[in-house]
Amino acid sequence: MRRTLYLSAFALLALSVATSCNDNKRAKNYNEQTTVDDQALDFIKSTYKTGLAEIKAAKIAQANSKNPRVLGFAKMIIVDHSTADSELKKLADKKYITFSDTIIELSHQNMLDSIAELQGQAFDVAYINMMVNDNDTTIRMFEDATGNHTKAVRNFAKKTLPVLKMHQDSAQAIAKSIK
């Protein structure tokens, strides 16, 4: 009987340790967990990564483009995404979510590397097409997040969505003018 009790206690302990080690929502302090669900957590992390990538792309545009419309668009992206990323970082801190300020997904990094080598018209076309495609994906992601269970995530998505749609309209107009 005693042996069965010890084995049961050991199995329960092993199970609790295993599940806590696989908890992808661990926060800065290991005693605290994020206060958002997995969907909100994924949204916050991928939104932040996408914002960093768009800022990096816009900085490349400032260096590689001579087109005033592209340069103006890049400046707008840097300002708006820096503001949004700052708000998102504050939201993440309040929800005990941590992430690196330098992580950019490999797919975005590959796109950045490919456009960084271009100059002039070729750059402008590649950059603006990349922005149109990225904004399509980002807008869908934000539209989905407007129905999130976490009020702070929902409010952030609703507040930011009109800015993203304006970016998309601008990128599409520029794309038509430079083809």
Automatic annotation (TrEMBL):
Keyword Signal set for record: yes
InterPro entries listed in its UniProt record: DUF4142, Ferritin-like
Annotated signal peptide: 1-22
Keyword Heme: no
PROSITE patterns attached to this UniProt entry: PROKAR_LIPOPROTEIN (PS51257)
Keywords: Signal
DUF4142 domain ranges (all copies): 41-174
Stored Pfam families: DUF4142
Entry protein name: Membrane protein
Organism: Mucilaginibacter terrae
Phylogenetic placement of the source organism: Bacteria, Pseudomonadati, Bacteroidota, Sphingobacteriia, Sphingobacteriales
